[in-house]
Amino acid sequence: MGVSLKDIAERAGVSLATVSNVVNGYRPVGERTRQRVQQAIDELGYTPNLGARHLRRGRTGLIALAIPELNNPYFAELAEIAIREAAGLGYTLVMENTAADREAELLLLDGSHRHTIDGLIFSPVRIGRDEVLARSADTPLVLIGEGVYDVPHDHIAIDNVAASHAAIQHLVAIGRRRIAFIGAAPGADRQSAHLRMRGYREALAAAGLPFRPQLVARTDEFGRLDGRRAMRDLLALGEPPDAVFGYNDLIGIGALRALAEAGCRVPEDVAVIGIDDIEEGRFSTPTLTTIAPDKEEIGRLAVRRLVARIEGAEVAAPLTVQTPFRLVRRESTGTPGA
After folding, report:
1. Measured in whole angstroms, how far is the alpha carbon of residue 61 from the centre of its chain?
2. Neighbours of 260 (CB within 10 A)
3. Which DSSP string corresponds to 103-144?
4. What residues does 325 pair with on adjacent strands?
5. What is the CATH number of domain 62-158+295-324?
6. pTM of the predicted model as reported, rounded to 2 decimal places
7. 65 class by beta-carbon count within 10 Å (0-12 exposed, 13-18 middle, 19+ buried)
8. If 309 and its partner were Cys, which of 140, 186, 235, 290 is the partner (CB 3.0–4.6 Å)?
9. Tens digit of each residue's pLDDT (9 = 90 or more) over 35-92
10. What architecture is the 5-48 domain classified under in CATH?
11. Is 334 exposed, middle or buried, given 0-12, 13-18 or 19+ CB atoms closer than 10 A?
């Protein structure tokens, strides 16, 4: 037989209601009493039945993380952080892959799982502000990434303009003047790509460098193959770039492959920098310089804000949080690092 709350109450010499308040956090309990209850819990080896607790409160104990790409290491690393944080708060996190499909994103947004999940952490790509504002589902929602801004929901992201600016500043500081950007997006719905492009252009202007349209490589997707193809095209120019800023690390790694195939030295001939700080970049040859977002903070904060709203805690009005980032210097820009 398992240990019950009644067993704990008898061991601690308190009422059943007091034990329930300690275990479930319903009402404040005096510190000395709480310590007695906690000691009884430890001595008896009590483990709460989280499933039963959620059911009593009319919840499932499940939250979802919806991402556009399961095979993107950035999202895999972020998911691992969110899963760990959710478990620590007594929730199970389930994954949803939208494959960057508009209909799939709309289905999730409108509550396709409204009876099976308690809340949703969502990284949209193909929908915008109007669709989020028109949402009818009342399931708590936290947005991550750069797809949607200015909506009445918590939103956690990095400052993409500033992050891109930092990448270009670094390339300028090591003497590069013909800096290419791989990953400009043709569609109006790729908000993060447009923001990174804006940071690229602003940083060039701040450094007194001209914007050269021929050094901007547009891609439909943001993977290794896209970076490789775009880098090949850039190398075929009459005046190829002496540095490349990739929309993300996957594009940067693809560019490194194309440069190796062409016999170019990195960073002597062409320096390369990306964004995301995925683990793969630490083991590429050469290792990849990157702008590292604080994935730990993004994952933790997204889960905590969502759970607080699910449980009716007194949280501030919806807010947009821009989490920190840092430049990680590695071999691809001539500065080996971590």
Report:
1. 22
2. 13
3. HHHHHHHTTTTTTT-SEEEE--SS--HHHHHT----S-EEEE
4. 293
5. 3.40.50.2300
6. 0.80
7. buried
8. 140
9. 889 898 888 887 766 555 555 555 688 999 999 988 899 999 999 999 999 988 889 9
10. Orthogonal Bundle (1.10)
11. middle
